[in-house]
Model the fold of this input.
Amino acid sequence: MSEVKFSKEHEWIKLEGEVATIGITKHASEMLGDIVFTELPEKGSNVEKDGTAGVIESTKAASDIYTPVSGEVADINQSVVDDPSKINSDPEGEAWLFKLKIKDRSEMDSLMNREQYDKFAKESSS
Amino acid sequence: MEMKKTSLFNLHKKNGAKFVEFAGYQMPIQYKDGVIHEHKYTRSKSGVFDVSHMGQLFIYDVEGLTESLEKVFPADLKNLNINQSKYSFLMNEEGGIYDDLIITKINEGYMIILNAACKYQDFKIIKEKLDNKHQMALKDNLSLVAIQGPDAKNVLGKIIANSDKLKFMNGCNFDFEGTKIYITRSGYTGEDGFEISIDNSKVEKFVEILLDNGSKLIGLGARDTLRLEAGLCLYGNDINNNTSPIEANLKWAISKNRIETEYPGSDIIKSQIKNGVDKLRVGIELETRVIAREETKIFNEQNKEIGKVTSGTFGPSVERPIAMGYVDNNYSSLNTKVFLEVRGKKIAAKICNLPFYKKNHVKGETNV
Done:
């Protein structure tokens, strides 16, 4: 069974075995507005928990993508680089951003579950 | 300080606006549909903009007003007809720009539309320069709305008969339900359009009728992408106290018969026209989808810093990143290869013509 968790930087992470899929939440995509540019980490590179792993730009501003856990980039979603607006239409599904081969499963422990995140998102936007 | 609201605040809210602070006002940055949709709607149909935060300055006619104002602005006001408008500048003695503005000659004297962030300072500067001799008023009882886009003339024409007969950069008084309103054919999007000065008590109803006739409210987000595609300057970004109209490539806005005459900064402007300028505002075309925002550094092929981006965004109609900025004048010619430093990486770009998006506004006597 897969496990989905959320970070305070509004990323979601789904762990299946050793591979985590990461994207931004629907709440984050709504806050950003129309997304027009995406830059993702390079395949094979290593990213550190809470470090930057790319950039998303909306018509208004640039925002960093943070990775909620450490690992080696196993895959990136080229379709959101080609058409960044996909992140607005399906951020928690088809428009995932990158996959990591994770190093330390315990890094997941400090992240929020869906219920905690929804509460956090509601509070941080009010 | 409490933030000010325009008379359309409740209508914005009702239409799902997200608000931002702009020059002390709570203004709509976008509505439910978002920036790209709003931008494209304005280009294909028509959009309504609340610009009531801008200053509406009236200076009333007494003997000698035109002569006095010509000492303040580098515009040919003597040959301006009643109801004709002109783009001009309030300048400092160094040739820098305190504000860019639109002057319209009206029956009572002059109406000047000022940028929101500059309006109180402008008022003081102009009053001082006129030696307090003329009666001036910044009208808080008036709202200002713009309707822009190819359908603007039809939508507005249905409500205000004959408004579609106005020529570009001309205005006139009209009647809306017994109230006098003033309409000019002008705008800030590169589209045909109008700006309507109307009493605060009538503006909500007026805008609701525009919306009922197929127009949509457009926020400041799309206003910015529209004006940048049209190559128009945003005061504070692309022009300021330290840029002259010549450096900003806006020489056309200094009336030809005023170049040899006196106005604030005229000596410097004359010398810049004669000897050239060190930096020049240019359009910049990027070769990738990376967006270079304001303050992005510009380099030449030898990696020497030659300028900075002053506005940059994604252009929804041209479907690519667009930017403008100032470069060392040695690198300002068309197609010069430059590099923009974005997040530590050098992105290839070249100097290009402005506007990015071809203008669509009606022709008429423009006097420029």
